Amino acid sequence: MSFYNLTKDDIEYLQYLKKKTSAKLAEYDTNTSTSQLYLNRKKHLQECLNSISECLQGSDTDKYDYFLDDIYDMVWGNSSPNEVVVQTMNKVDKFQPDIPTLKEIAQTVLKSEVETHIGSSPLWIERMKEYTENGVPKVISIRQAKLALLEADLLDDVEEFISKTDDRRVKISWEYATDFDRYNDIILALQKQLGLTNQEVDDLFIKAKTL
Question: How wide is the angle at C-alpha 41 spanned by C-alphas 36 and 43, nearest 5°?
Answer without folding.
Answer: 95
